[in-house]
Design brief:
heterodimer, A: alpha+beta, 5-stranded antiparallel β-sheet, 6 strands, 28% strand, B: 82 residues, 2 helices, 32% strand
């Protein structure tokens, strides 16, 4: 005897409901996006403002203003290139960026690129002076 | 909901709990919080960095002690000059 199609559909809906329900609430969560790269990208998207994320997609780097140096900005690339440091100087043409150098910082554990972007961002925000003291400057 | 997110080789993994459930006497939530605190303390002891994240437009804050009420706590690997 064949199982009716509506019974199969109801069973499928029940399984889907159970899986979704188990992803809610307390405990270790099972991410919907399964690959490390996809999870990292989702975390990045959720951890920056929509404007910052659009800027990252368009230009390939996340721009951050320094909290220690008023005219300084950091460009954190979306790939594994070095963080670039710019200073905006007043010129006849208005404020113009001048590249001060690049910062070479690596994580002691390999991570997906998007997680590395967040690591740079959070560490610069949390303790910029320490981040700069750890980084090797490349002029 | 509150989260501990641990960044690493395989992408982040996370623990999720609700402090309101702990207040209501939910033992499972209390166990998750205890596990999160243990993971955080161990990570800090190994030289990893722990950060509190309140919102995307708020700067991350470095922490040395676990706070179950923080919206997001993140552990990132140690960094060195390249």
């Amino acid at each position: 005897m064949h199982t009716p199609w509506w019974a199969m559909g109801a069973l499928g809906a029940l399984i889907l409901f159970y899986v979704l329900w188990n992803n809610q609430g307390t405990g270790p969560s099972t991410p919907v996006e399964q690959t490390p790269k996809a999870r990292a990208e989702a975390l990045l998207r959720d951890s920056v403002t929509p404007e910052q994320y659009q800027h990252l997609l368009k230009y390939g780097y996340l721009e951050m203003a320094s909290r220690l140096y008023p005219n300084r900005r950091y460009h954190i690339p979306s790939d594994r290139r070095r963080v670039q440091v710019f200073e905006f100087c007043a010129t006849n043409l208005g404020q113009q960026p001048q590249k001060l150098g690049e910062l070479c910082v690596i994580a002691c554990e390999p991570m997906p690129d998007a997680d590395l972007v967040l690591t740079h961002k959070w560490l610069i925000e949390a303790d910029e002076a320490k981040y700069l003291s750890i980084a090797n400057w490349v002029k | 909901m509150n989260k501990l997110q641990i960044l690493g080789r395989e992408g982040h993994r996370e623990l999720v709990w609700d402090v309101e459930e702990v207040k209501a006497g939910d033992m499972t939530a209390a166990e998750v919080i205890a596990e999160a605190e243990s993971i955080l303390n161990e990570a800090i002891a190994r030289g990893h960095l722990a950060l509190r994240i309140d919102a995307p437009d708020q700067p991350a804050v470095r922490i040395e002690k676990f706070d179950a009420t923080a919206p997001r706590t993140v552990i990132v690997p140690r960094i060195v000059g390249g």
